[in-house]
Amino acid sequence: MRVLFAAFPVAARAFPVAPLAWALQNAGHEVRVATHPDLVRQVTEAGLAAVPVGQGEDLAALTDLTRNPALADHPGGGLHIGTGECPDWGARWYRTTRAFAALRPLLEELTGTVVRWRSDLVLWDPFCLPAAVAARVGGAAHARLLWGRDNIAWLRGRSARYQDQSPDFPEPLEETMQQLLEPYGLPYAEELVLGQWTVDPMPPGIRLSAPGVRYENVRWVPYGGGGTVPERLRGRPLRPRVWAAGEGFTEALRELDIEVVGTSDAVPLVQLLPSCSAVVHHGGAEVFASAAAAGVPQLIVPEPTWGEEAAAVQLVRKGAGVALDRRESDPESLRAALRSVLEDCREGAAAWREELARLPGPAELVPVLEKLTSHHQRI
């Protein structure tokens, strides 16, 4: 097969495609990753073939959703939803569809890439709807590759149900899809928003499934880029090592008898986590899933942007860490919470790691992708 990954043009979204891309290459398939020229280095350093798209587009304009006027009145720009709850789902769905439109400038180049290379399968970021349209034009099978909870499918389901009950409800998705489909004369199909199927690497317990979507689950494999291992990471730390994502965390924790490593140290998590006694962060999917896979206890102060609160709930449920309300995260509370993590959560984190290790890995997903591609591909 020829498999094209369409990655959202920021490094944090480009990195998660690597483990599955490696598995496909190791199985003998051809793999390329389409992303913005400014992200090509991250792709090629992972040993993958990069295809630059959006060469005339300003990267910040594509990725900074806060520049979108539709998002400007929303504090923090968060698109999170509670598990099974979201009283303002309509407003969040509207903001999500406005975010979809940001990547429209990539449509022509993505379509050209799929058609010229004769891609068999396109795996695309949930926000990269132009990749789904490109796959449809080129006759390729296509699926979404998640990097967090499936808030998009959940919100889309709520919108569709509401539209059935209120036919006059103005569906905000229509305008975005019309702009993408008109150049090719294509009719709308739900798979262009939700994929023909969806690959979900999130740990069980924070997955958010939507009716009518076929999910193929896979184990999260941490990857955050390569690099030279710093001298201090080449042996065991003399004191408990704690990685803290944020200057505020770093300063608050320095009074404890621990070694604090901050984000300014620029060490890939995949190198750092095995030597850590704990991590402190806001609950982002990449850090949460990577720490869980490494068996490292966590202290989460969730900032509700996507699935952070769900991650905090699952962490506590597994006994693998502590969640602290951001409104109560003063320095003394942070230090007390971290003490609890270091003293009480090691066994829970280790047990969770063993549980996650039994999930199917990327190599086990490859035969599933082969069968689904054969079924959905339009020759």
Instruction: Please state the second-level CATH architecture of the largest domain.
Output: 3-Layer(aba) Sandwich
Strand runs, count = 12
Strand content: 5-15%
Distance between the termini: 13 Å
The CATH H-level homologous superfamily of the largest domain: Glycogen Phosphorylase B
> Taking all residues together, what is the mean pLDDT?
91
> How many discrete domains?
2
Order of strands, main sheet, comes to 3-2-1-4-5-6-7
Report on the biggest sheet. 7 strands, parallel
Helix percentage: 40-55%
CATH overall fold name of the largest domain: Rossmann fold
**Rg to the nearest angstrom?**
21 Å
CATH class of the largest domain: Alpha Beta
Query: Unreliable runs, pLDDT <50, ≥5 residues?
Result: 69-76
Order of helices and strands: EHHEHEHHHEHEHHHEEEHEHEHEHEHHH
Content-based structural category:
alpha/beta
Overall geometry comes to globular
Number of helices: 17
Structure overview:
- With 379 residues, the protein is of the alpha/beta class.
- The protein is built from 17 helices and twelve strands.
- The strands form two sheets. It has a seven-stranded parallel beta sheet with strand order 3-2-1-4-5-6-7, with helices on both faces.
